[in-house]
Amino acid sequence: MNANQFLKAVEQLRGWRECAFLLALAERAFPNYALFSDAIGMKGGAKMRRILDQAWGMLQEAETEAAVPPMLARLESLCPDVDAYDAYGVYPAFDFCRLLEEALLNRLNPVKHRATDASQLATATVMNFIEVSEGEGLDEDGLVRLLDQHELMKADKAFQRDLVLAVKRQRTPTATFVEGLKERAANEGVSNLGISLND
Q1: Closest CA to 170 of 18, 42, 34, 45
Q2: Domain boundaries, the chain
Q3: pLDDT band (50, 70, 90) for residue 74
Q4: 32-56 confidence digits (pLDDT tens)
Q5: What whole-number distance in Å separates Cα of residue 97 and Cα of residue 90?
Q6: pTM of the predicted model, to two decimals?
Q7: Domain 3-189: top CATH class
Q8: Over 50-100, what HEC string results?
């Protein structure tokens, strides 16, 4: 699947498939939030985990719209203010919150397409991290080469491509499928930035 085919496939995602795609992106980014939350003593990781798990549960329930506004309110209260912290970690943590917010908003308004922007946001999180951690002193060409060849970029691309194919092939969000997707996205606690909840 080349870049254009991937973009087209993401643009075509609708309904539960789009929601599953958004949730999987958020799941992969969750350690970025949990580790930042711990580092600043915010202790929001467990509360955010419950919101994320509840959102996954919604994929198989028909009437869940009423549950979404309180979840969005809880999410907002746990979301870090990027202007309040000097630490770089606030940005990936905030990006996670935006991904989860998109998944929840998808349940409230499934007509508005969100997957394309979310896909780009998830990739931008990885790009920014590489730029900050390894891109110092590189000119534009050097940075492009670094991003092109970086293992984290390759992993993000492969994950998102596999994700789109998995949801496109699946006819209904069965319990087994959702559980498998969630587990694959969780990646044994390793985020899209290669940082681990187990460290």
Answers
A1: 18
A2: 3-189
A3: very high
A4: 999 999 999 888 899 999 999 999 9
A5: 11
A6: 0.96
A7: mainly alpha
A8: HHHHHHHHHHHCCCCHHHHHHHHHHHHHHCCCHHHCCCCCHHHHHHHHHHH
